[in-house]
Amino acid sequence: MSTILHIDPSVNGENSKSRQLALKLIERMKAADPSATVTSRVLDANVAPAINGDVVGAYYTPADSRSDAQKALLATSDALVAELQAADAVVIGVPMYNFAVPSTLKAWNDMVARVGVTFNYTENGPIGALAGKKAYLVVSTGGVPVNSPADFATPYMKQFLAFLGITDVTVIEAAGFAVDAEQAMAAGLAAVEAAELPKAA
Predict the structure, then answer these.
(1) What is the pLDDT of residues 60-69, one digit of tens each?
(2) Is the pTM of this model over 0.90?
(3) Can you give the residue range of the structural domain that contains 95?
(4) Which residue, 74, 124, 172, 184, could crosslink 177 as a Cys pair with Cβ 3.0–4.6 Å?
């Protein structure tokens, strides 16, 4: 049995194009592996708040030395990390907001990047601890072409995932919804259908 983690940071709810395409991809994945389970995490300011100095301090405090207050601060981060660790495949919606990722997705990144947990520092640089997972980035934009010089979302997410050790990344492109929504959705659906699916666990 495999586990699929769906990360959805869009503010547009059911109208979100990245969510619609991500769900289509997950449908394909479930059809190919009916035993797969799906964990869905919709990000908002409650689930993925911006980190602060107290949270960072808790990160760098040894687990057996953390106060009750620090443990409470890290409860959400611990839950998000556990979901990511348990996943065999990760489907991340990446709606482009002002050339970059939504603030809640950045906050999610900040909460799952945990030294000694999801990556480690070594003499040869940081080494990710989450190798072997498959990731999909479902990138939707209003007008900016994916992987163009103005696209700071896609390369950032690929770099971030690689930092955690996740290097098998497929990008589902759906650009130009503000220009031609029908064409953008068609391109996104075609990319979903063309995407190579992970092998069943």
Answers:
(1) 999 999 999 9
(2) yes
(3) 3-194
(4) 184
